């Protein structure tokens, strides 16, 4: 019996180990069509997906993503790109010029990518596939762009591994709904709920690592946001035409 959509969404996990079973090409095309059916601001459709099948390119991508081996071993690896190049061509066709570097254009293309990719992910998981987003390609976006020949006004947002799962990891606990859903206006952080969630995450990491990892969400966020993160991205985006004005 098929799971409901809500059950499917609530069972999402990142998969980092895949079987050797290939994904039927017809199914992959259906997944991409599902992505195309996502909402898109002003019908921009500002997404291009680069399918990487060459083993050497896969290995290079895995290395550029800080050595994540499943980039090379997954049945499929896709690079999702925010694409204003097609729109620039349309502007030229109509005797106009793409307004260079508008922050709003950058935002709607990037949001389009996220919506498109999540549709692909949900469709893939409904067919028994596992996925893993690869934000690590932004560690060196210039080399990634060179590797897949991205033109101006296109940048790689993230990669996506797809394949049949060869592992069954535990669900990672999320924040309590009461910390996320707010009534009428923004609410201060509930310190008690945060402390309880930290303990839930501590238990999760203990079980996942057989006691080797003692860590909580607050520590994760401090490590993530308490330091600079990919400071090269602003200059890289400007070099590709996304100047944020």
Automatic annotation (TrEMBL):
Keywords: Flavoprotein, FMN, NADP, Oxidoreductase
Keyword Chloroplast among UniProt keywords: no
Start and end residues of each Nitroreductase domain: 10-164
Keyword Glycoprotein recorded: no
InterPro entries attached to this UniProt entry: Flavin_OxRdtase_Frp, Nitroreductase, Nitroreductase-like
Similarity field: Belongs to the flavin oxidoreductase frp family.
Protein name (record): Oxygen-insensitive NADPH nitroreductase
Lineage of origin: Bacteria, Pseudomonadati, Pseudomonadota, Gammaproteobacteria, Oceanospirillales
